[in-house]
Amino acid sequence: MEKQFFNENAIYVGEVNIKVTNLEQSITFYKEIIGFDVLEQTEGRAVLTADGKTPLVTLEQPEGIQPKEGRTAGLYHFAILLPSRADLSHFLSHIIQTKYRYGLGAADHYVSEALYLSDPDGNGIEVYHDRPSSEWNWANGQVDMATVELDAQGILDESNGKWAGLPSDTIIGHIHLHVRDLESTEAFYIQGLGFEVVTQLPGALFTSTARYHHHIGLNVWNGTGAKIPDKNRVGLNYFTLVFPDDDQRQQAVDRLENQGVHVEKQGDIHVVEDPSGNVIHLV
After folding, report:
1. Cα–Cα dist 277/280, whole Å
2. How far apart are CA 83 and CA 280, in angstroms?
3. How would you label 84-123 residue by residue, b for 16+ Cβ within 10 Å and e otherwise?
4. First-to-last CA distance in the chain?
5. Is the keyword Transit peptide assigned to this protein (predicted)?
6. What domains can you pick out in the chain, each with its CATH number?
7. Considering the entire predicted model, what is its pTM?
8. Which residues are CB-contacts of 246 (< 8 A; sequence separation ≥ 6)?
9. Per-residue DSSP letter, 154
10. How would you classify residue 150: left for phi > 0, otherwise alpha for psi between -120 and 50, otherwise beta?
């Protein structure tokens, strides 16, 4: 992976917090299938890490949690970025051996190669590696992305060792959200938070900073005007956006408030909801 897309020049996703119905079942999945380690755990919460110190995914089992609703706004998937193609090869070999198939899919996106699966509650997960940015094709400020068949055998041929969980420098590469409409969504993420649209597909925007292929994907594939899910449903609780410094974060807060968006300060964190009810912690 190339660090310039996740450093002091970029705004990027740091951590994802999701709601689940059975914490112990989910911990087993995220450890044994995905390869996380548990950083800390309480009765209703587990923080997951790849390097033993950095939280990447937090699982929460709220009291009275209900199963995931279909056709709503909310999480489409969060994406775990591996350092190399060989790491994706080890992960694919592991998935084949485990025979885990819930939500399983695969795609070549030109800029990246990806595997898809769902956790036991139906929360979508992508596990991917990036092709070198020198191989990405840009034209008129747009990066060329598509969904074509993955060369799975070519990836498997990259293996140079056994799967041993997630590499320590694994990060959250991006998040992809179902939203209610693209117009208000674009105003929030582009004019408000300061992202740029780098790819448009039918019913979807892909946005980034620092010329990454995308830090946030946004789509209306569940239907324009899709319902905002109830707070006690499985799905996204919140995700964090990491800003380069407090000044840039404050500028984003000011732009959002000028749009009439309510931003709540909670200690060192600013909390905001996008127009589709997706909660974001600005850190």
Report:
1. 9
2. 26
3. ebbbbbbbbbbbeeeebeeeeebbbbbbbbbbbbbbbbbb
4. 22
5. no
6. 3-282 (3.10.180.10)
7. 0.98
8. none
9. H
10. beta
